[in-house]
Amino acid sequence: MKSINDSEPIFTQYSLRLSNELRDKLKSNAKKNDRSLNKEIIARLEQSLILDQCPECVKYLQTVEGHKNIFEEQYKLFEELNKIK
After folding, report:
1. Which one, 9, 11, 17, 36, has the greatest CB density within 10 A?
2. Domains in the chain, number
């Protein structure tokens, strides 16, 4: 979105209260993604709005997450079996 003179974007400043735990998690992810905490929060909000428009995408991602969890559990069991041998 551009300002009246089309030279600078218009942004609205918003104060946000986060728990220390949530802030630390977001900050850690921001560092991993090589962006500021502010940009991390904006990216996540934009992502959630996109997902709101695509319920099928949410269901698909939940299925993928479920499969990931199953594979992780199977891998742990496999590692335990290898320790026994």
Report:
1. 36
2. 2
